[in-house]
Amino acid sequence: MRKKNAADAADAAFCARVAEGFVEPGDAMPDGYRATLIRQMSQHAHSEIVGMEPEGNWITRAPSLRRKAILLAKVQDEAGHGLYLYGAAETLGTTRAEMTRQLLAGEAKYSSIFNYPALTWADIGAIGWLVDGAAIINQVPLCRCSFGPYARAMQRICKEESFHQRQGFEIMLALARGEKAQREMAQNSLNRWWEPTLMMFGPPDGESRHSAQSMRWKIKLHSNDELRQRFVNMIVPQARYLKLRVPGSPKKDRRTGDYSYGPINWEEFRNVIAGNGPCNRDRLRARKKAEEDGKWVREASAAFAKKHLERRAA
Ligand code: FAQ
């Protein structure tokens, strides 16, 4: 009993500490706080890196030089986001090698959304508009999360995500104003990406095992369902502007202003995060190949850094 009271007091003291300002890497923090941050930040970093795959697949097939240059820059941005996040997670005592090992061994998750294929050019529009749109809704609050390096990484990332969402919307706009076949391609993409995008926010609040503690620690600022609703409220008017039909025909609640959505197939979500989505195996195979192919580059840069340090010491 005395032990429990002491643990509760320590937890209350840390929650009070979190309310005062950013926690920095050298500060005292509970083991659970550190472990939760490493889990979430490494999953987030893996999502950025694996998230390059569906769009990267379209760089050689972009319909014009302008589209190709923009897509190339966007995919490079995602790589940069992964690096900021791995770097921020490393300040908590883990290493990039260990995080990569966990991803390749299937021990660490990455966002469910990247296990769906990009089948048409309109999917590149839908990924920018919907997936980056969801990422912004989820990540803008994280700029005010309690851990300094994560919050600062998110500030840089969110600026770039806004550009990503606009480029996706602009692709959809061009298709929506195009010929019948282009409008159908855009509608078909929205139909396929809508539900998987809603799943990105995580399971319903009643089934979210981490939310309560993460919100106490300000690692998360809003619940999964709150953010999902914000996303729906943002996208429905944009879809109407594009003259596209959102699946499920959302209705506005006059009292709250919220649009309805769903139902969401949570069985499919569980199946995808268990490794059985349409592209899970391809995604991990590509990461394993990249790790193997990049081995000589890592060895060469480590040898160069060692030589440089030795010269400086001499
Ligand atoms: N996919 O208790 P909760 C992007 C897991 S970046 C896979 O609610 P939590 C940019 C969860 O890990 C997208 N797994 O969990 C881009 C946990 O399993 P665990 C990534 C999911 O952490 C755009 C279990 O379910 N963004 O898109 C998912 O409190 C275009 C129970 O769930 C972030 O990572 C899911 N969707 O809340 C890049 C943002 N949802 O670990 C390229 C930061 C839940 O116990 C192209 N992360 N799970 O085995 C977060 O905000 C949170 O971690 C949530 C999940 C909201 C994702």
Concise synopsis of the structure shown:
The protein is mainly α. 68% of the residues lie in helices and 0% in strands.
Number of helices: 13
Order of helices and strands: HHHHHHHHHHHHH
Main sheet summary: none
The parts where pLDDT drops under 50 for at least 5 residues are none
Radius of gyration: 21 Å
Distance between the termini: 59 Å
Count of DSSP strands: 0
Shape: globular
**What proportion strand?**
under 5%
- Structural class comes to mainly alpha
Mean pLDDT metric: 96
Bound molecules: Phenylacetyl coenzyme A
The percentage helix is 55-70%
What does this structure look like?
With 314 residues, the chain is mostly helical. It has helices at 2-20, 31-50, 52-56, 65-90, 96-104, 121-139, 148-176, 180-199, 211-216, 224-241, 266-276, 280-293, 295-313. 68% of the residues lie in helices and 0% in strands. Helix 2 runs antiparallel to helix 4 (65-90) and helix 4 runs antiparallel to helix 7. The protein is globular, with a radius of gyration of 21 Å. The relative contact order is 0.11. The mean pLDDT is 96. Bound molecules: Phenylacetyl coenzyme A (FAQ).
